[in-house]
TrEMBL record:
It is found in: Nucleus. The keyword Coiled coil applies. Residues 28-45 have a biased composition (Pro residues). Residues 202-229 form a coiled coil. This is THO complex subunit 5. The keyword Aminoacyl-tRNA synthetase does not apply. Pfam families: FmiP_Thoc5. It comes from Lepidopterella palustris CBS 459.81. Keywords: Coiled coil, Nucleus. It comes from the Eukaryota. Residues 1-49 are annotated as: Disordered.
Length: 262
């Protein structure tokens, strides 16, 4: 009996020690996951890229952190269950182990609830982002179409401007006086622009041509008068020739009388 008491007193502290160690190890929270930091030089190979390399949004990174915490809690819970499996006859583990398993399961459920809530928020945020992206894309497409229309209109207007600039205008073929000569005659136009100066030169040429046209019309009338007068004189001379022939014919008998010798 004394020997059994000694064994009992010797084994009880060991049992308490093992239970305390189990409680300490089981109640210890899982190690915190490392903070996700963007790598200074992210890999370019898609095979070697991780989730942290692909996901850059802070909110989505928080979802990954919570999911990693839930994964670690699952691993810790599985490890705890492997340490205390059921007996061959279906005997349940000690009550302290069941309590600790329940605590770890509740902690895992809390992690899963957080992950589910964050996932739901991520889905809503993704939908909002898709909607905002679609609206922005529609706006960009509209602006791009307007830009294409403006570019087409710009090319059309440039073509029209080049056609107008290259058009052989009739005013360029007018024998206008030089700019220097025009400014010498009309010094009031020295401050005019190129367009106003060209209009003034054309108006001056028009005025000069009107004066020359009036002079031409006067000379033409004078010419017609001279032609009519010359025609009348030619007719008078022609009539004079006829009268002279008649006079000569009428004077022949008289000349014959004077030619007789008496």
């Amino acid at each position: 009996m004394e020997r059994m008491k000694v064994v009992a007193t010797f084994t009880q502290p060991q049992a308490k020690t093992s239970k305390a160690a189990f409680a300490e190890t089981a109640m210890a929270p899982p190690p915190p996951p490392p903070k996700a930091k963007p790598p200074p030089n992210p890999p370019t190979d898609p095979i070697s890229m991780t989730a942290e390399d692909i996901v850059t949004d802070p909110f989505l990174r928080s979802v990954l952190v919570k999911a990693d915490e839930a994964r670690r809690q699952c691993i810790a819970l599985l490890a705890l269950r492997e340490q205390h499996p059921l007996g061959p006859d279906g005997a349940r583990p000690p009550r302290e182990v069941e309590i600790e398993l329940a605590k770890q399961q509740q902690l895992l459920n809390s992690y899963l609830i957080q992950v589910r809530n964050l996932y739901r928020k991520a889905i809503f945020s993704t939908r909002q982002t898709k909607q905002a992206t679609a609206e922005a894309r529609h706006e960009i497409d509209t602006l791009h179409l307007q830009l294409q229309n403006l570019s087409y209109e710009q090319r059309h207007l440039r073509g029209e401007i080049e056609a107008c600039e290259g058009y052989d205008h009739k005013y360029q073929q007018l024998p206008l006086i030089s700019v220097e000569e025009f400014l010498e005659k009309f010094p009031d136009h020295r401050d005019d622009g190129e367009h106003a100066l060209m209009i003034a030169r054309i108006e001056h040429e028009h005025t000069e041509r009107q004066a020359l046209e009036e002079r031409r019309q006067g000379l033409l009338k004078q010419k017609q008068g001279l032609i009519a007068e010359n025609k009348k004189r030619k007719e008078d001379l022609a009539n004079l020739d006829k009268d002279l022939e008649k006079f000569i014919d009428a004077a022949k008998p008289i000349m014959k009388i004077f030619e007789k010798e008496y």
